[in-house]
Amino acid sequence: MRRRARRVRAGGLAVLLALVVVTPLAPAGAGSATAIDVSPGLARPSPPEPVRVMLDDTYPPYSFRAGDGTLQGILPDLWALWSQRSGIPVQLIGLDWAEAQRRFNAGEAEVLDTVFHTAERDRIYLFSAPYATIEVPIVFEAGLSGIRDAAALRGFTVGVKGGDACIDFLRQRGIDSLRPYPSYETLIDGAARGEIRVACIDRPPASYYLVQKGLESRFRASPPLYAGEFHWVVRKGEDRLRETVQAGFDRISPEQRRRIVEHWLGEPLRSNLDPQTVQAVGLALLGIGLIGVLLLVWVATLRRQVAAKTRDLTQALAELSAGALRFRTLFDVINDAILLHDAESGAIRLTNRRARDLFGFRGGANDGGLTLADLCGDTPPYDAAAALDHLHATADGPRRLEWLARHRDGHPLWVEVDLRRVVLDDSGPQVLAVLRDITARKESDEQLARTLDALTRSNTDLERFAYAASHDLREPLNTLVRYAQLLERRLEGSDPSIAEPLGVIATAARQMMRLVEGLLEFSRVDAAGRGFDPVDAGRALTVALGYLDQALAEAGATVEAAPLPLVAADDTQVIQLFQNLIGNAVKYRDRARPLRVRVSARRDGAMWEFTVADNGIGIEADYLEQIFVIFKRLHAHSAIPGVGIGLALCRRIVERHGGRLWVDSTPGQGSAFRFTLGAVPEAE
Ligand code: ADP
C-alpha cells in the first residue's frame, strides 16, 4: 500500500514538473492543473519527499489564480508556511474541484484541501480538524423573490460546481435538476449569461466573483442553506501522513494564521492611535457623552418640574383667590358677630358684617380704625382695660364670658363672647372673638328674677299672714267651739228652736277650726328644717297607721304594705303623707265592698316611687289635677267631712322634698296615689 503510494507520488511528480513549466503560459482557466513548489528545502543533502496537495483553484480567496495564472490565496500561503515549519516541501496542485477530487482519489496527491465534510467522503478520507467555516447560500437573480431555502428551488435548474458538497445537500432534499459547472467562476459566468437563474455557491467565492465581474447588483444571496467547514484530508489508512501534516500545522501559531487570513480577507480598519490612547479617548468621549445625556435628562426633568410647579402655583393662586372670595362671603353671612383682635394690643384687625351691624358701624372689614374702646362702656368691669385683660387671658386657653358692650349710639348691649387664640399668619397671635347678642335674654332674665323676687316676697308675706291669721284665729275659735258645746249640753232636751241653730253654730265653728288648723299646718310645711335625714318609710307608715287605727277598724279595712325603703326626708312629713293618703282612702271608700289599701315602693333612679292604692270610689278624669288645689273639694263628696287641704298639703310636702305627687284613678274601681322621695345616697 505504502509502496504503491510512492509510485503514484513519483508519477505525479513528473506530471507536476511538466505542469510547473507550462503553467505561466497556460491560461488560468477551468480544467487546467497547476503545481507550484513552495518548499524551501531543495538545497538540503537529502531532501524529504515533497507532499502533494491538491485543491480547488477557483475558490477565492482561499485558493485561486492570479492574472498571470499563479495560484494564490490563503491556502497557498498557509501551505508555504507549513512547509517552512515542517521542513517538508509542498507541491500545490490547483485544479477544477471535480477534477481535483478525481485525481486525488486516483492517488495523484497525498493531501486534498478545501474539502467539506460529507458522509460519503467520510468513508474514504481521514479528515483534519475544520479550519474555516464557510456559509453556503443560494445566489439568485435579483428579480426573483422568495428564495430563502432549498424547498424554494423546486422548478428551477440549479447551477452547481461539479463535485461540490452542495450537490449531495440538494439531492437529499429532492432537488435533482442541477446543472454542473467545472468551477465557481464558470458557474457565475453561466448565471451572468442567463443559463441558470439560481446557483448554490459558497459565500466567499460567490462574493469574490460577483464583485470582480460587476454583477453584485444583478444577484442576491439567500440566508445560508448550511454552513460547511473546510478541512484537508488524506486517504483512509494514511494516519501517519495525517499526523505529519497536522504536526506541521501545529507549528503555525494562531497569530500567524490570523495574519495570513487577514491578508486575503482584509483587516478591520484600525486607527493610527495606540490602543491605550484610543481607549482613553474612547472612555473620555463615553464619559462626556454620558454627562451630556445626563445633563439632557436633568434639564428635561427640571423643565418638567418647573412646568408642573408653575401649573400647581397657577392653580393654587386661582384657588386662593376663589378661596378668599368664599371666605369673605361666608365670613359675612355668618349670623354671629366676629372680630379678630391683635392678641397683645387688642387692636381690631377684621370684623364681619354682623359685627359691624351689631355695634352700628358701617364700612369696610375693619371699619377704618374701629377700636376696642369704641365697643366698651366706661364702667368697670366692662371697660376697655378689662376687655384687654380678657384678650390676654386667652393665652391660657379659650374662654367664654358675658359682656356688657356699648352700641355706637351709646345704648348698652349684652353679648356672650367666645374668645380663642389663633395664629392665621406670621403677624403674630390673634384672638378670634365670636359674639352673640343676648340683650333680650338678659332683659327677660332680669325681668324673671325681679318677678321671682316679688313672688317669693309675697309668698313669704302670705305664709306669714296665713300663719298669723290661723294662729290668732285659733284662740277665739276655740272659745267659740267650747262655749257652743257648753250651751249645747245645758240646753240638751230643751227648746229645739234654740238647740238646733246652736248645733249649726257649733258644727260651723268646728269646721272653721279644722280649716284654720289645716291652714296652719300648710303654712308650716316650709318652716321645718331643710336638712333631710334617712327615714325608714316602713316605720313612718306604721306610725301613720297607728294614728288611723280606729278609723281603719271602723271601716273594716285591710292594709297591705310591701317592704319600704329608707328615704332622705323629714320623718314627720313622711308620716303626714301616709296619714293623709290612707285617711282619704278610708274617707272615700266604696261602702259596697271592704276597703283594701296597698302600699308599695319601687326604685326609679335616684328616687323611690311610692304607691298608696285603694279600691275606693275613684276620681273622674276631669278632676285628677284639681283635687291637689288647696280648699278644692269635689261637690259629690260634700257629705264626707273635709276642708280640701289634705292633698294640697301632701303635694307641698313632696315638692319640698324634690319629688312629685300625682294620681291614677278609675272611677268605681279605686285610686292609686303616687309620690317620689329621694333615695338615701349609697355612702350613707
Ligand atoms: P278633703 O279630703 O278634705 O276634701 P283633700 O285635699 O284630702 O281634701 O281631697 C280633695 C278631694 O280629693 C276630696 O274632696 C276628694 O273628692 C278627692 N279624694 C281625695 N282622696 C281620694 C280617694 N282616696 N278616693 C277618691 N277621692 C279622693
UniProtKB/TrEMBL annotation:
Domain of life: Bacteria
Sequence intervals crossing the membrane: 280-301
Enzyme superclass (EC): transferase
Family matches, as Pfam families: HATPase_c, HisKA, PAS_8, SBP_bac_3
CDD domains associated with the record: HisKA (cd00082), PAS (cd00130), PBP2_HisK_like_1 (cd13706)
Signal peptide span: 1-28
Keyword field contains RNA-binding: no
Keyword set includes Transferase: yes
Protein name: histidine kinase
Entry's Gene Ontology molecular function annotations: ATP binding
Annotated PAC domain residues: 399-450
Assigned EC number: 2.7.13.3
Domain Histidine kinase: 468-681
SMART domains reported in the protein's UniProt record: HATPase_c, HisKA, PAC, PAS, PBPb
Alphabetized UniProt keyword annotations: ATP-binding, Kinase, Membrane, Nucleotide-binding, Phosphoprotein, Signal, Transferase, Transmembrane, Transmembrane helix
